[in-house]
Amino acid sequence: MSDLSDPTLEMPADAQRFAQAVLPHVDAAYNLARWLSGDAQDADDIVQEACLRAFRLFGGFRGGDGRPWLLAIVRNTWFSECARRKQAPAQPWNDEAAAGQTTDDSASYGVDPAALLARIDDVRRVHAALAQLPVPYREVLVLRELEDLPYRDIAAVVDAPIGTVMSRLARARQQLARLLTEDNAPPRTNVTPIRSPVGSSAGGMGNSTKEARHEL
Question: pTM for the whole thing?
Answer without folding.
Answer: 0.67
